[in-house]
Write a structure and sequence with these properties.
mainly beta, D-amino Acid Aminotransferase, Chain A, domain 1, OB fold (Dihydrolipoamide Acetyltransferase, E2P), 6-stranded mixed beta sheet
């Protein structure tokens, strides 16, 4: 079978894997919306004559290549990677590319010997903090700001840089500016743990802007790094957290671009938490300074979230003998969760009187999991002030502070 390149290549030599072929753009057109496929010895990088691409490309006459590309040094099949600008990423599936008229792009095909290639760095399940209500008081802890975004693992190996979600899904295309910046870090391989955020001009993360920026303005994202797991062939997970952070800083400094660094303080957890709360941030993450990196939830990482107090509509009350009484609440007609009614006796008495007077049928739009025969539904009009953890989509660890009088 014969495979084809996209355009004529002058001076292309198959004898050695160090030679590169330049693919010039036609009329300044670049390529975009390409789907990456694994290039480790596979040959999806070209396509057979029976699978010609979309005619919109208006390709120059193709150049025929041997079916198997070999390395002149070891006679092993070569992999091919597409080098786009200064970034090396896995080879594209060319049959799915679309034209990109405005941007001029220089692409390179780089032939890579596969015999001595190292295995790709694998995704590591991230370490996660346990939620606690108070920050640690010992000086044996590091304290960092808890950033509100998407947990991300940035990995570089011989095939390039990838950005993976907390479950290992590849979101490199969504985070392409961070991937490009990762190519410029002074290391051949690494695995970095961090949080992808949508920062405001003052640096505060705006979680509600994440999806919009991923779709339209990915260059306005920022990757806040806080741990490093691998660096140039070394597994760093067994090192103390304080040493890993020093290694991370040496890699990403000055960290004033799209890749940033999460600073920390040692000890003084209560004071640090109070300062974070005053700034209106979500909370803090505390880590034992000498702890190794361990996947999953461990007690060597804890998070403390700040509190918000807001007014919500009471839509029902659940009373069970031997248990705390809970109120069911809504915001703008949408169910948002439960809160413990642990107010003074006088407030409770006023609340029970209004509930007896304003009983109602079950409102529409209540999740099935919430519906219970023990719930007493009430008419709209009763509002309560509720304290709840900041930054949560539903009420969490919430308690009623009082009624909002008409």
């Amino acid at each position: 079978m014969t495979w084809f390149l996209l355009s004529p290549v002058s001076g292309l030599t198959m004898a050695g894997f160090s030679h590169r072929a330049i693919l010039p753009d036609r009329d300044g057109g670049g390529l975009r919306n390409a789907e990456p496929v694994l290039a480790a010895g596979h040959y999806e990088q070209c396509f057979p004559p029976t699978r010609m691409p979309h005619p919109a490309f208006n390709f120059l006459p193709p150049v025929e290549l041997p079916e198997v590309l070999s390395c002149g040094s070891c006679s092993m099949p070569s992999g091919i990677r597409l080098r786009r600008s200064s970034s090396t990423i896995p080879i594209f599936n060319l049959s799915k590319m679309q034209p990109n008229p405005p941007a001029r792009l220089e692409s390179r095909l780089e032939f890579v010997c596969m015999r001595n290639a190292q295995p790709r760095l694998k995704f590591i399940k991230p370490q996660e903090p346990i939620l606690v209500l108070e920050p640690p008081v010992s000086d044996d802890w590091l304290h960092e700001i808890k950033f509100d975004g998407f947990r991300t693992q940035l990995i570089r190996d011989w095939a390039g840089v990838r950005a993976l979600t907390r479950t290992g899904i590849d979101w490199s295309k969504r985070y392409w500016p961070v991937v490009d910046a990762g190519e410029k870090l002074p290391a051949k391989s690494f695995s970095i743990d961090g949080e992808m955020i949508a920062p405001e001009p003052d640096g505060r993360p705006n979680f509600h802007q994440m999806h919009s920026r991923m779709a339209w303005n990915a260059e306005l994202l920022a990757f806040v790094t806080f741990d490093i797991l691998h660096l140039d062939g070394r597994d760093l997970r067994g090192l103390p957290a304080i040493e890993r952070k020093a290694i991370l800083w040496d890699l990403v400094k000055p960290a004033d671009g799209i890749i940033q660094y999460s600073p920390h303080v040692e000890g003084n957890g209560a004071e640090f938490f109070a300062a974070v709360d005053k700034m209106g941030l979500e909370g803090i993450v505390s880590k034992r300074r000498n702890s190794p990196y361990r996947a999953g939830k461990t007690d060597s990482w804890v998070k403390v979230k700040c509190w918000d107090v807001a007014d919500f509509d009471l839509i029902g009350v659940k009373r069970e003998r031997g248990k705390q009484t809970e109120g069911l609440f809504a915001k703008d007609g949408k169910y948002v969760g439960r809160a413990v009614i642990a107010t003074s006796r006088a407030i409770k008495e006023r609340l029970w009187q209004r509930i007896e007077r304003d009983r109602a049928e079950q409102p529409a739009g209540i999740p099935k999991a919430v519906i219970d025969t023990d719930v007493e539904w009430v008419k709209p009009g009763i509002r309560a002030r509720v304290k709840t953890l900041r930054g949560e989509p539903k009420l969490r660890h919430a308690s009623v502070q009082g009624l909002v009088e008409d």
